[in-house]
Amino acid sequence: DQQVKQNSPSLSVQEGRISILNCDYTNSMFDYFLWYKKYPAEGPTFLISISSIKDKNEDGRFTVFLNKSAKHLSLHIVPSQPGDSAVYFCAASPGGGADGLTFGKGTHLIIQP
Amino acid sequence: DVKVTQSSRYLVKRTGEKVFLECVQDMDHENMFWYRQDPGLGLRLIYFSYDVKMKEKGDIPEGYSVSREKKERFSLILESASTNQTSMYLCASSFQGGNTEAFFGQGTRLTVV
User: Fold this and answer.
1) Out of A31, A76, B20, B63, which could bridge A63 as a Cys pair, Cβ 3.0 to 4.6 Å?
2) Contact status of A1 with chain B (Cβ, < 8 Å)
3) Which residues contact B21 (CB under 8 A, 6 or more apart)?
């Protein structure tokens, strides 16, 4: 049973526009959420995170929104750039960090010129 | 600079061989993890360790074992490699306690023939 779901396997966005990647979770124990970016043949790199006590976290062009009642989070990238083309993984943790992160299946973001 | 290093980028092994994947981190992290990434399945947790000589099963431990003799080193062992273990293997580490991201190595692409 998937506890973290990314329902869009791929997303195509024009350069300069906003990219919105979505993620849903089912486990109420999750209270820390992260987004990772992954290029082919490389390990994932941490992008941004949010704790359940917040509903928004911003870092430059990247903003993550958390809706706890809907068990939904989203990553906004604006403006989108060619280097943003990658696979994005949503991940969640029950906090404490000891149990590892539960990942979604990923969304392949393609930025078109 | 934070570093998680996996001993090999690419490996080709024969069915039935015993395979060792090594991972070293230089950040004095308590937690270490092994994931595998397969197309359409995202990252799945194989094993993790929160202390030296401690290990916990993740979501897909069958066919694998691990060893953590030193804090900085976490090894994944395929006791008898099979073709369905062909995958990208990713090692990660993190601090224990509180909300914290995991840092990943560059990955090992293992092919079992």
Assistant:
1) A76
2) no
3) B6, B7, B8, B11, B34, B75, B76, B77, B78, B89, B91, B108, B110
